[in-house]
Write a structure and sequence with these properties.
By secondary structure, the protein is an alpha/beta fold. It has a single domain (15-195), classed as 3-Layer(aba) Sandwich (Uracil-DNA Glycosylase, subunit E), CATH 3.40.470.10. The chain has 9 helices and 6 strands; from the N terminus they run ααββααβαβααββαα. The chain has helices at 15-23, 30-33, 57-62, 69-80, 106-123, 132-140, 146-149, 169-174, 177-195; strands at residues 41-42, 48-52, 89-92, 127-131, 154-156, 161-166. A hairpin with a 4-residue loop joins strand 5 (154-156) and strand 6 (161-166). The chain binds uracil (URA). Residues 52-56, 59, 65-66, 70-71, 92, 170 line the site of uracil (URA).
Length: 196
């Protein structure tokens, strides 16, 4: 896998500076339409991190990732492996809502990627679960579809972390029960990776 947009590096500023810079970011056009920047939520010392695509309408309103219907499913799946939202860290590839929930564009991802890079560098998660095609392709630099790569472990940050791709909870809500069972199984794989 190659061409990652995300290049793991050391943190360039403190967590508080990073957050403060992100909250007033105007690096791309998404700043114009947002209500607020959705930086991330949870423990900055977490061993387990989730990365989604970008804030939706409810996240833009509340300033927190995954608080809509898909977020409720994500919360239930996290609780299903014996953890809570405050035990993990949840962030997105882009921190501002793309208008009409369209996919983030390459220049928007590039402008935003230093924030996620630095979040990962600060948190140093042992396991990163990427939610859906979009986040998985961005972090792994692959064009493979989520159905093919889900539930597998991919080394990241020189082997300091593993990425485990799974479905996006919104896709599971739209789909049939089989995807939910597969997503649950992927969470168990993540839990086992944490216990190693
Ligand atoms: N979908 C995402 O990818 N991220 C969110 O925060 C909410 C929905």
């Amino acid at each position: 896998m190659s061409d990652n947009l995300f290049t793991p590096s050391g943190p360039a500023r403190s967590w508080d500076e990073l957050r403060a810079d992100a909250l007033e970011c105007t690096r791309c056009r998404l700043a114009e339409g947002r209500t607020q920047v959705v930086f991330g939520v949870g423990s900055p010392g977490a061993d387990l991190m989730f990365v989604g695509e970008g804030p939706g309408q409810e996240e833009d309103r509340q300033g927190e990732p995954f608080v809509g219907r898909a977020g409720h499913l994500l919360t239930r799946l996290i609780e299903g492996i014996g953890l809570t939202r405050s035990d993990v860290y949840i962030a997105n590839v882009v921190k501002c809502r793309p208008p009409g929930n369209r996919d983030p564009q390459p220049d928007e991802i590039e402008a935003c990627s230093p924030y996620l890079d630095e979040q990962i560098a600060h948190i140093g998660p042992r396991v990163i679960v990427t939610l859906g095609n979009f986040a998985s392709r961005c972090l792994l630099g692959t064009k493979e579809g989520i159905t093919k790569i889900r539930g597998r472990e991919f080394p990241f940050r020189n082997g300091e972390s593993v990425i485990i791709p799974t479905f996006h909870p919104a896709a599971v809500l739209r789909g049939r029960g089989e995807a939910l069972a597969q997503m649950r199984a992927d969470f168990v794989i993540a839990k086992r990776a944490l216990e190693r």
